[in-house]
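Q: What would this complex look like in 3D?
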Amino acid sequence: MGENERMDDAGFTHEILKGLPTTMVPATLAARILGDFDRVAARPSKLTAMLARIGERLWPGAPVWQPASVLAFSLVIGLTAGAILPSPGTAAAVSDQVAVAALDATPDMDMD
Amino acid sequence: MVIDPDTDLVARVGKGDRAAAQALMARHLPTMLALARRMLAGQAEAEDCVQEAFLKVWTHAARWQPGKAKFETWLYRVTLNQCYDRLRKRPTEPLEAAANVPDGADGPDRGLETAALEVEVSAVLAQLPERQRAAILLCHYQERSNIEAAEILGISVEALESLLARGRRTLRMKLSHLRDGAM
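A: Here is my prediction, written as structure tokens for the whole assembly.
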């Protein structure tokens, strides 16, 4: 195919397609598309949806803030208790250490 | 870094700004609908296709990363992919059916000649392989540059030129009788 022929083909195609009427956008289509936007915008984010599901399991039928407050309150109580009260495990370890120290210590007695 | 006039609008759409969504739609809907209508040769199907493309925009806007590609290029790709999907799902139809293009722009001032031209051109366009059709429509109907069209189609400029050459040849061979009437 020669260069001139290619140019002719391009010119012909361009003019033929330029002669086509323009496409009008129906108002109903614009409304449908904006309706989709509204639905997507109203949809909660994945994190919010996940929290809501957890809340629903913990406290069915309650608004999300109720299980969230209970969990937060429990967390605060737990952390405070952990910070203030010594754990029984720690106490046991201390007493074990005392016992070990007592056994390892040089007998402090007069053999004479 | 690609300078994209839509970056701000897309970011606002991602934050749920309805006015931005409306502005973005007003800017691109007519072009996308026209492309889909010529690709699919049908108004109702083109509308569904464009609606799905915009639904993708609304759902992906929050994650849009500016600077990688122009938003418009991405939107063209999404719209064309929707068209390809529909074309592939379609049962093979006779040429007469493909030529029967319902018109979204019917009006009293529209001439019969234009309507006849549209039917005939649409029928020949429908016979082109989908990639050739897309290349022809992007470059000659939507007047995108070869570089832009190649980017939209995800091919090299040389490959685009090859698609264009074959498509133009077919159109000219099949529509040469329109030369006197249309040109």
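A: To summarize the key features: The first helix of chain B runs from residue 7 to 14. The mean pLDDT of chain B is 85.
Q: Very helpful, thank you.
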